[in-house]
Known about the structure:
332 residues; mainly alpha; two-stranded antiparallel ribbon; two-stranded antiparallel sheet; 6 strands
Amino acid sequence: MDQERTAKDRLSYPYNQDLSGVLRRMNRRTPFSRQRLANDPVTAAYVLAGMQLIRRHLGPGAKRVLNDPEDENSLGRPLLSFLSQRAVVAELANNPAPFPRVGTTATLRCSWRSHSDYIADLLSFGLWSLHEPALHDSRIAPDTERLLDGPEFVAAAHRLCYYDLTTVVDGPTFRLELIASAAAEGDEVIQEALAANRQGAMEPWKQVYQEMFLARGLRLRPDVSLDDFAGMLAAMASGYALRRISNPDLVSIDTSRERCIFGTAALALLLGCVERGGGTAEMSIEDAVRELVYGQPPKEGRQPAPPAAPHETERLSKTSDGPLKTSSHLAE
């Protein structure tokens, strides 16, 4: 036992720590045996090997291996190993009508020069189609019109965010984007597919935002561009979708009211990044925050200094019979 403990102690952090609370599925019948196995140096060796594979294939500094040394675009993509040629051909049998249901690996190889090329095209299609349903969703157009005119702006914004989040969460392509993003470092094919998808997904919405600002007499603050605004909204949608997929309890979705927290976050972003147009004064987000925090607008050409920190001798003190008090000149 002492020798085992010594071997454990010699491991690097955090493998030298008690892992029994982390490795909870060890193949032993009793709690004592599971704890012992979780802290066995051999177990730590297997865990380390797995972590090294993750780093090697996903990054940072992921190691990229060419399937064909003569083809610089034939990078291996181990996260997508379930998309082997044989697996793809076998899956044809499950295609719905009227799609063909019979194929061969030879036909697949004839259609794409390499399996890497097929994967690249599949990624491009899957990532592009992530937002494509919105263009054909009958729910979208009426609410985008309500953003431009009428009294239902807030309700329409909530519904649009609800539609977007549920579409992303309920489909498979966002999960493909997560896998592709994890494997994108050092892989130009995946990087280009991701970039093209993001650009294509945001362009239609940028037009909606621009028309909304004009119709409602609004403008972005001077330190925020239209690309910035659209990118922040897209990032929030992805973040909430990721949290919802990993743990549905983290992001509640009210299907009866067609609302979710993403709608509230989008309205908060609008409130912070947009101001009423028509005047001559323009206030940046930073100046707006300073006004919010300090209670007064910044003087022209100057940034208000934060309140001076109290001196060491001017700490807050609590009296025995009342609330917190400060020294006399601070209280004034």
